[in-house]
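User: Before I run my own analysis I want an independent prediction to cross-check against. Here's the chain; please return only the structure tokens and, at the end, one sentence I can use as a sanity check.
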Amino acid sequence: MVEEGKHPSSSSTPNQESESLIIFPNFPHELLIEILSRVPVKSLMKFKCVSRTRLSLISNPHFIKTHLINSLKKDDFGHHGLIFTVLPPNSDSHLKQCSLESAFDAAAAPSSAEVIEIDYPLKNPYKSVWVVGSCDGLVCIAIEEDGQFLWNPSIRKFKKLPDLGVTIKRGCCIILDLGTIPLIMIIR
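Assistant: Structure tokens:
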């Protein structure tokens, strides 16, 4: 039997619900989840410091999946971006980023693209880095002589992937289809 005002698939705990009531009296926990699942990641990351319950909520795999689905439904490309490797002649590569909106604008006027250099795990000006693949906001990068990493640029977390037995050096190219790998297994 489902209590009134409760969604049958709700994964909230009594502690989360009581904290929701304290912070937002008469505000259903499910509605809070629905609202937060539509907030951009950068704004959502501010909730990490509000309370352990909020951190638990936004770290919940079900919430993360809901957030990703909502994000992909948006027609606004302002939150989506491109991450790419820049290979200057006779120099080490580095990663840059631009929004999809800026990239579309640059198609008409190439000098209008707003491209910025980004920080990435183990950034080292003396080692090259390559984008190997991406899926659902996760990016696989290979860093010269350091290996491969699964990286979430939105929350700035990364995991080193198991050694593939290949040393990454300049001129080397690896392509990985992240769409066929159960990513949750790698992260755990």
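Sanity check: The mean pLDDT is 69.
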